[in-house]
TrEMBL record:
Natural source organism: Sporolactobacillus laevolacticus DSM 442
Transmembrane stretches, start-end: none
Protein name per the record: UPF0597 protein P343_09800
Residue ranges annotated for the Serine dehydratase-like alpha subunit domain, each copy included: 90-419
One of the GO BP terms on file: L-cysteine catabolic process to pyruvate
GO molecular function per UniProt: L-cysteine desulfhydrase activity
Highest rank taxon of the organism: Bacteria
InterPro entries xrefs: Ser_deHydtase-like_asu (IPR005130), UPF0597 (IPR021144)
Pfam families in the cross-refs: SDH_alpha (PF03313)
Entry similarity comment: Belongs to the UPF0597 family.
Upper lineage: Bacteria, Bacillati, Bacillota, Bacilli, Bacillales
Length: 434
């Protein structure tokens, strides 16, 4: 693949669009971003606020700690944080570098102002509309389809900005239609290091730092620590523990940023941290590591293209599969090895559901990484799943397509039931962890 080829340039654009820093779980951060932007447009501290959100947004924000809020959870907390101290210019780092006095003001604002959360009156899976009011003035900011995609800004009935999203979920992003496993491998074999060193290097640095934090302190259910204590310190366990510990910290409100993949910090960590551990074990060069992580990222993005940003299908499964492919690549695996690793691993864990962002995500990540590694080890031991074995069909790209159909279409009703179960006792107000 030549650097002047359109597909080469498209793949670079996709990496730069996807591998961006985020402080905190991306769904509450998207709420905070919309709220910070709405206050900016209003030009005053709002007296009241209403958030209309899709069920999937409510699901993913319900149980996760919003960073830099002293342990607050939920949509109302994320909105209050964005209004009081958010910097909309930082987008998914809108709540980074918050001062202690601002954290106290967030709680005070939440306790003394009306913040109402209502279900969005549409069928858009990813939808956030924040309306803020002060006196006779009113402003609304709408985000659709992905976390930073502001599609509408209005003030006092006047439209200040409007973007059509008719072309689909990833409108405004580089077309992902050219992604396939063979071209991903070709790209990773030939990409110039100077073209990926910044985005991949930042992913490795940021995600390694939050993983280390997760292993040092107590966050969530401490899955990373449990794995090391229960199963030892071999590379396979370390790979699972590193990714799980990053999620432990992130779901627990750690203020360190992560580099996301497909809109998810958990996926960004799962796609990178296991490969970093294997690279240490094998004494891999920096170039080998970067190319392997690049492949893992693109394999993850490719799978998520058919699934969608939010689904009843756990995104960690896709990223664990990507990690397995990256580990295979790090070991010199060619197209056949990588293709079989992907097929084997998705066949193992494609039934894991997404029931929102919370501490158990770390355990699901551990299972997904283990499946990715097992998928590779199966091929190393002359074993594989064949066409006709469940959702597996002939050809890795065709199997990935099947998974996308299963997740986006087949699990639609599953998603509704998950949300119904989760929201039966949901209180849309700020709360603090014990």
């Amino acid at each position: 693949m030549d650097p002047n080829d359109k597909i080469y340039q498209d793949y670079l654009k996709i990496l730069k669009e996807e591998l961006i820093p985020a402080t905190g779980c991306t769904e509450p951060i998207a709420v905070a971003y919309a709220a910070a932007k709405a206050r900016e447009v209003l030009g005053a501290l709002p007296e009241q606020c209403t958030i209309a959100a899709s069920a999937n947004i409510i699901k993913n924000v319900k149980s996760v700690v919003v960073p830099n809020t002293n342990g607050l959870k939920g949509i109302a907390a994320a909105c209050a944080a964005g209004i009081v101290a958010g910097d909309a210019s930082k987008k998914l780092e809108v709540l980074a570098d918050i001062e202690e006095d601002a954290k106290a003001r967030m709680r005070t604002y939440s306790d003394t102002h009306s913040i109402t959360v209502v279900p969005a009156d549409n069928d858009i899976i990813f939808y956030i509309a924040v309306t803020v009011k002060s006196g006779a003035d009113e402003a609304t900011v709408v985000i659709e389809q992905f976390h930073t995609n502001i599609t509408s800004v209005t003030r006092n009935g006047e439209t200040l900005y409007e973007l059509s999203c008719e072309s689909g979920e990833d409108s405004g992003l580089t077309d992902r239609g050219g992604l396939n496993v063979r071209d991903i491998l070709d790209f990773c074999d030939h990409v110039r290091m100077e073209d990926i060193s910044e985005v991949i290097g930042r992913q490795i640095d940021y995600n390694s730092a939050i993983s280390e934090e997760g292993l040092k302190r107590n966050y969530g259910a401490n899955i990373g620590k449990v794995l090391l204590r229960a199963y030892g310190n071999d590379v396979r366990t370390r790979a699972r523990a590193a990714a799980a510990a990053g999620s432990d910290a992130r779901m627990g409100g750690c203020e360190k940023p992560v580099v996301i993949v497909s809109g998810s910090g958990n996926q960004g960590m799962t796609a990178s941290l296991p490969i970093i551990e294997y690279a240490k074990e094998f004494g891999a060069t920096r170039e080998q590591l970067y190319r392997a992580v690049c492949l893992s990222d693109l394999v993850t993005i490719y799978q998520k293209m058919g699934i969608g940003r939010l689904s009843a299908y756990c995104g960690a499964v896709s990223a664990g599969c990507g990690a397995g492919a990256g580990i295979a690549y790090l070991n010199g695996g060619d197209y056949d090895v990588i293709a079989h690793t992907i097929v084997n691993s998705v066949a193992i864990t494609s039934g894991i559901i997404c029931d929102g962002a919370k501490p158990s995500c770390a355990a699901k990540i551990s299972a997904a990484v283990d499946a990715g590694i097992l998928g590779y080890q199966m091929y190393q031991n002359d074993q594989q799943f064949f066409s006709g074995d469940g959702i597996v069909t002939k050809g890795v790209d065709n199997t990935i397509h099947n998974v996308g159909v299963l997740a986006k279409e087949g699990m639609r009703e599953t998603d509704r039931e998950i949300i119904k179960i989760m929201l039966e006792k949901t209180e849309p107000s700020a709360s603090v962890t014990n």
